[in-house]
Each structure stands twice: as structure tokens, then as C-alpha cells.
Amino acid sequence: MSLLNDQRTVTLEIANEFMCGKTPLNEVIEHFYNNRVASEIKNKRSETKFILSALCRKLFEIDNIINQLTDKNISPRNIMIRNCIRIALVELIDLERPAYAVINSWVEIAKNKKRLMHFSKLINAVLRKFIKNNTKSTLDDSEKIPGWLWDSWSKTYGKTETIKIINASLSEPPLDISYVDTETNMLQLPVTLPGSYRMNQTGKVNEIEGFKEGKWWVQDAGATIPANILGDVRDKNVLDLCSAPGGKAMQLVAMGAHVTCVEISRKRIDTMKDNFQRTGLKPEIICADILKWQPEKKYDLILLDAPCSATGTIRKNPDLIHIKDQQDIKSNIKLQKMLLERSVEFLNDNGVLVYCVCSLEYEEGEGQIEAFLKDNSSISSMPINKDDFPEYQAFISPKGYLSTLPHLQEEGGIDGFFISKLYKKF
Ligand SMILES: C[S@@+](CC[C@H](N)C(=O)[O-])C[C@H]1O[C@@H](n2cnc3c(N)ncnc32)[C@H](O)[C@@H]1O
């Protein structure tokens, strides 16, 4: 198979593949750039990601615009034509590229592709009509996400709050970082939450001062909270369950803890090792399935960052909107329950376990914990106290659970997390 050497064609092929399956966008992009893209355009990878992420954020709005511009809707079977127009619209709207260049390029691509050549006139006409009419989306905010997600969020948070969640989730996030040396702020950045600093800089992360030298790593402000909720971990043993790619493990080591990581995925452990290598923060790593693993000792402090739908991270992973569904939530709930039941077996009496998920779904958060507490009489909730964590008070519920929502942090938002603190009764 010959390698693709035209940037727009690469973006189109990746969009086609992504829209047909449930593979995360990053994985599809990685596969293409490793196997199907010619070396002379490999440097365009971040541009491809930017365009397709913007498309994922706005897909419902872009399709609404396309539907207004076409008399007969383009058949859902012909996803390729629709993707040409979708990508061209992102180029026009988000990248503000000159209309003549965008339209001519897509018409040429269509003329040269067997499956598109009969539609080059349609693509030309739709894009020209868009420019002429300056067509805007007519969708309500509630229609910018899939119906099941609207139902889930509006049931949990109410309609007004959900609109705020949607708009924050569909905005591009700033870059939050944590320092290896917790005493310094070498880049002199504003502090968002304890141990979290915010950068509004765009561009390649590895070109920012101090990254290659391992002085900091990227971690959303919300993701720094679970480790802090464990309290003072200096010189203590902490079991970090479900560890990769290692953000919370690095934070715990930087806070002075002796950390043991348990993670099932070898591939993700490789990424985690790269992160530890770069920052010089080195916990013990065990590759194992927590459901089968037998620890040599029990722990006083455990962090369980369970696999979840990750709907709290849509700002960074807008592809999730299009690849997750209610069925995924159901299987996550089962796995989280099993992981929780297993994890508390690793606790010493009076030991503390912090459970967290980067999900906004009630069933993966509060619903999961309330059901777990009902079934497990040896475990109690240890309400997170506003006096102990004044910086987090806006996120703490009357029951002592902590939930961040994407719009609840000024100037740039925050990833959505649910966090609960549990202890084993003596
Ligand atoms: C939400 S991510 C963890 C993020 C990580 N704690 C961090 O801060 O970077 C969940 C992780 O759980 C791992 N996982 C899922 N099931 C597991 C199991 N049965 N045993 C061990 N790890 C598991 C996944 O491979 C994934 O890396």
C-alpha cells in the first residue's frame, strides 16, 4: 500500500476510520502516522489532531449546518462525502483558512478519488453556499451532545447546570502542570488549586521550558485532588491502584510517599515508565490484574483511580462523545464494583482508601459508592471535610463527597472528577 502524502487526504482517511468504529481518536491517528503517512508530512500530526478534535467537539453543529445547505440530506452510507465537507468547514470556521484554497483543495481531492469523483460538484456547491450565506448552527445547547448524555447529566445535575457543563466540556482546555519540586514555581505560573499551575500557552508541550529536563508533567487541576485527599503522605507507603499513565503516582512520589503502582496494561506501563524516567520520580511498578493480584502486605493508604467512561475529560478527549455509550457505562460499573471490593481487601484496619473516577456519571461515582457502602459493612465513608480542605470547598457535597464539574473553575475550567474517602473499620 502506498503511503499517503497529502495532509487533507490523511485527515479524511483518519476521520473515515474513526467515525466507523469505537477506537479512540488518538489511537487511530497514531496508527496512521506510524504506518500509512509519508515521512515528508509526518510533522503535520498535531495539525491533524487539532482539526479532528475540533470536528469531534462540533460534530452535531457542523452536521446541522450541512443539513441546512443540502436539499436532500447526504446519505449516512456515504460518510466519506460528509467527512470531506465536515473537515472543510472546520478549516473555514476554526482555522479561518481562505475559502478559495479550502474549496479548491477539497474539490480536487474529490475529483481524484474513485468513491468521491461523482460528488465533487456537490462538495463545491455546499461549501460555496456556506460562504455565501454565512450559515450558522441552529442547535440548542442541549443538542450539542448525544441524547443519552443529556439525559444522564440533566437527571443528575438539572438542566441549567448541564448547559454549563456542556459548554465547558466543549471548550478547549488550558494546559495544567504539576512540578516535580513541589516547593518551586519555575515558570511563574498562576496557581489553580494546591500543587496545580495553569499555562495558557499553546504549542508543543515538549518544547516548553523544563519539560525535557523533567521539571514538570502535564496533569489537569482536577486530577491533582485525589492524591491530596489522602492527606500527609510523606514517608508513608501508598498503594496506587490502576496507575497508568502515572500522573497520580508521580504526584504521590513528589509529595514524599513510597509508592507501589499496580497496573494491568503493559503498553500503558511503558508510557508510565517514560514519564517516571523523564521526571526521575520512581515508584515500584507491578504489572498485574488487581482482581487476581496478591499483595505481600496490607496498606494504610490506597488510591484507586478506577477505569471509567471519562466523561469528565471531554474537554481534552472530545472523541469520547462519539465512541462511548450507555453500554460502556454499564460494563464500567461492574468492573469498578469488583475493583473496589478487591481493593479494600488490601487495606489495614483503620486504613484509608480514596476512590476516584474522571466521570460525571452518577452511577460511576456517588451511586457506585453508596451501593458499595450498603453491601460492605466493614467499610465506612470518611466525609471529606471543608475545614480540612478549604481550597476544595466549592466541590464538596453535604455528604462529604467531592465532585468537580468542568465549569466550576474560573478561567479555563477543570476536568470532572468524583472522589470519595473510605476507611476500614477496626
Ligand atoms: C483512569 S486510568 C488511571 C490513571 C492513573 N491513575 C493516572 O493518574 O495517571 C485507569 C487505569 O486502570 C487500568 N486497569 C483497568 N483494569 C485494571 C485491573 N483489573 N487491574 C489493574 N489495572 C487496571 C487501566 O489499564 C488504566 O490504565
Give the SSE string: HHHHHHHHEEEEHEHEHEEHHEHEEE
How many structural units, i.e. domains?
Answer: 2
Count of individual beta strands: 12
Number of helices: 14
| Radius of gyration from the alpha-carbon trace, in angstroms | 23 Å
The CATH topology label of the largest domain is: Rossmann fold
CATH superfamily of the largest domain: Vaccinia Virus protein VP39
Which percent bin holds the helix content?
A: 40-55%
The fraction of residues assigned to DSSP E strands is: 5-15%
From the helix content, strand content and strand pairing, which structural class follows? alpha/beta
The ligands bound in this entry are: S-adenosylmethionine
**Net shape:** globular
Low-confidence stretches: none
User: What is the rounded distance between the termini?
Assistant: 64 Å
CATH architecture of the largest domain: 3-Layer(aba) Sandwich
